[in-house]
Amino acid sequence: MEIGMVGNGKDMGRGGGAAWAWYGLGVLLMTTLFAFVVRQMLSLIAPSLQTSLGFSDLQLGMLQGLGMAVFASVASYPMGWLADRFGRRLILALGVACWSLATGLCAFQDSFGGLFAATIGIAIGEAGLAPIVFALIPDLFPERQRNTANFIFYGGSLLGAGLGMALGGALLQWLAQAGDVLPAALAGVDSWRIAMMLIALPGPIFFLLVLTMPLGSKAGLAVSPVADDAPRDFLPYAGAHWRTLLCVFGSIFAMAVAMTSGVMWFPLALPRAFGIDPATVGVGLGSAITIATLVGVILAPVLLKLRRRDADLDPLRVAAIFVALTPLPAAFLPFTTSPFQAYLVAAVQGALGIAASSLMPGVLQNLAPSHLRSRVLALLGIVNALALAASPLAIGALSGLIEGPRGMLQAITIISLPSLIVSAILMAFAPGPYAATLRAIRPGLSKEFP
Q1: What does the pLDDT read at residue 8?
Q2: I need a labelling partner for 263 at 20 to 30 A (CA). Which of 118, 161, 253, 310 fits?
Q3: Do 5-223 and 234-441 have matching folds?
């Protein structure tokens, strides 16, 4: 089993340890981009699936919702357990192999059942991606560089989602015009099938890159001590530190409910409220989200650097500041009088939420013992999946009870504003139990630690 690491300054300065660490982060970023291309391609080929296989909207929804989201959340914790038990690199590499093989198999399916089964394979393979990657970062970087690595990976992942969509779209456009250059064996084959085969081809390369990624001594790190009486299994750990987990993950869940409500329902709410074209909403909301992403990812490390009071508690306290501010823009949404004002609310709220969210991987890395880290981080995906399921249902049900063109905007506020307030309250109470958890699992901390 690969165990957690802490920095050794002298080692990091010798033998290229720092270079190996950044190389490892590059491998993780490229692997994540590969996963995004696969994930986004399933959305891009949806019209082709309806044309060639006659799938209904419900079936497409089942492929992307039930097939991907549900099975990915269900498999997240088992993948985390396997990673902690048998090695994070190994399980991540096997995950790459699983989703690559399943992607290739998609190309040979002629029925909904076959494509649904292949989609489940993709979901299971990708389920461990985020928790294992964030669990691997402390195995690559010392504590003084960990937040920087987290910010780079988090920002790269957000941008990678858009880049994956762009690369997938470019591939489909090329295939539509490449009939003359394709081998004769592929003549008459649907372009979506060829696309799935092509994006599966890099799988063996990424499998080997992940499997041979340097950790431990090559990255210049030493073994992290764990308290002798620290729980060795997840359930005893969760029972001993339930207050910390409740505050942190409860806050994350409430924040995710609020953020999901805006992203999913704005394209429907703004045309109703302001009589604008849905395509216009896509451009405006997409621009707002892009700006919010860039501002949020930059804002978090800047404030963290300015604070510099306590390396262990600062990420949580800085996140609490951002979370406490998010209800303010949300409260203005029902009073907006133009689409621009609604986009501004979304951008400000989004920037604050992304700034807080970008600090959460570091917070979770600190509170998890090294031998449980992947499982604790797997809870992040499960919590976000639950929020993704709860938020649309709540707003959809509530908006039907509110009459008028602005009813959905009001429903979004009714759900998101209390959620953000609850998130802020839980995060405000988190530092006390969080500090107690750190003292319990890290024996090197002083008894005077706050």
Answers
A1: 44
A2: 118
A3: yes
